[in-house]
């Protein structure tokens, strides 16, 4: 079954066709490591993770490259303002290297907590200065550059369709003209390829180049590193919608100028996360990080919440929605545990083969039909431009389906979790501590003796230990209140 993805270039859902059969070259813009990534940033990495997992679920081998911007990203996101890393280093009284190492490690830790798969290659901008200088030289040779007092700039008027990704029109260009401009730039959309260190200034991070001492422009690293690791053209480039107008537009310009090709065939963008209805900004939500929510929630609760919205719609985070996701995820873990407890661990279709036909065979045949039906519907949902809300809905329908055996449900959950990444493979059978088990059997004795009040007191004590007693037709069952992975 084909994967369909919404391509920002065409503004259409397209059937994904890889450049090389069975393989996907995938570049995702990574964080600028001057501060912690907030949850809005993490939503983008979660969407990219779902995209990668969906491709892998479909049998593709994905080469996933992500960069760390550790130089050159200015506070304006354009060509004015301070370098975010140098600014942060000054504020924290540390070296630029200390800052970037610290926040790179923090990012990796947060990504792991959210069960985001490690890219095949992590690439740092400062490790690829040579490649970036080579790219500017190539652009210079082809006549796409000009020099002004503070750097080497890309002449966007040299491309016929600059801005096609963002569909920048005259209106958009005028809007661009309103932002703070660098004096001497020929067109408002021109951007820096190499910034020169001003005379008399000593930056922490600067390098010699044919144009003088300085540092690369922010967009340059992605073009240089994607070309190095994925080639002049690869399959998918992803990022947040905030990258469309400037960063990705300029990456396309650089690659088209240098190699005559749009670097990626599919440009996929994830929408913003709102916090209590506000865009995350300095004033609201900028400091809401994975580490912060981890005091109250399992980080995977945020992953679950993100899955409940389509990646191309804005999503609002409220503490109520986090609570609801916490409950839902715990319920799903309970279901998984129940299925584990109810089954021997043998694969149900093996049993079916052994049993062949007969009475039991009839039952399993119905199960088999259901199994393949859910399997197909799940694949349809995720392959339809990563429709995770629909896929999650199916998960809940499936676990509640009375006609499906527990073993089949367990197998399906594990299979679907290869895309969802909710940690269902880490759920183990219930294993109450011996104190809780003792209390439960004592309570059962008291119940047999109809000593209800005493039995209830023990139930309360069991609850304090984090467990609930459910009385089932087969006897009491101990259920953990909150399953931790
Ligand atoms: Zn980038």
**Mean pLDDT level:** 90
- Class computed from helices, strands and strand pairing: alpha/beta
Strand proportion, as a percent range, falls in: 15-25%
Q: Provide the gyration radius in Å.
A: 27 Å
Strand order of the largest sheet: 5-4-3-10-11
* Main sheet specs: 5 strands, parallel
Helix content: 40-55%
Number of helices: 16
Bound molecules: zinc ion
The N- to C-terminal Cα distance equals 33 Å
Report the uncertain regions.
345-350
Write down the overall geometry: elongated
Total count of strands: 16
List the helices and strands and how they pair.
Elements (H helix, E strand, L loop, with lengths): L3 E4 L4 E4 L7 E6 L10 H19 L3 E8 L15 H9 L3 H18 L7 E4 L4 H13 L3 E4 L2 E4 L15 H9 L12 E6 L17 E3 L1 H13 L3 E7 L3 H16 L4 E7 L2 E3 L2 E2 L10 H4 L5 H9 L7 E3 L1 H24 L5 H8 L3 H25 L4 H13 L5 H15 L13 H15 L3 H13 L2 E6 L2 E6 L5
Parallel strand pairs: 3-4, 3-10, 4-5, 10-11, 12-14
Antiparallel strand pairs: 1-2, 6-7, 7-8, 8-9, 12-13, 15-16
Helix pairs in contact: 2-3, 4-6, 6-7, 9-10, 10-14, 11-12, 12-13, 12-14, 13-14, 15-16
This protein binds zinc ion.
